[in-house]
Specification:
mainly alpha, single chain, 75% helix
């Protein structure tokens, strides 16, 4: 599917999830996420969702610092959108 439609966000996101959750390949999942971020004109809600997903993955791997960095990226990219407040709340809970 991605060979024919490389800009298929949904399929690429699903592939990243499969790499991480089913195959335990976080580096492959990260590469797929990088490809998503590289596509121009992505919607802020999608970028925030992907960064939150990556924060979840980092937490599953017990990497709190990397999870915090994902949340900080949301805040930096979208300071005037609801995603910023949600990320701030999540970051506050992580520090507890």
């Amino acid at each position: 599917q991605l060979e024919r439609h490389p800009l298929d966000n949904d399929t690429r996101e699903k592939l990243a999830r499969v790499y991480f959750e089913r195959y335990g390949q976080p580096e492959l999942a990260k590469e797929e996420m990088k490809k998503l971020f590289a596509i121009p004109y992505q919607q802020p809600r999608d970028i925030a969702r992907w960064l939150n997903l990556m924060a979840d993955w980092h937490l599953k791997k017990d990497n709190r610092a990397a999870a915090r960095e994902c949340l900080r990226q949301i805040m930096a990219r979208f300071p005037n959108l609801p995603f910023c407040e949600e990320a701030q709340q999540r970051l506050t809970r992580l520090k507890e």
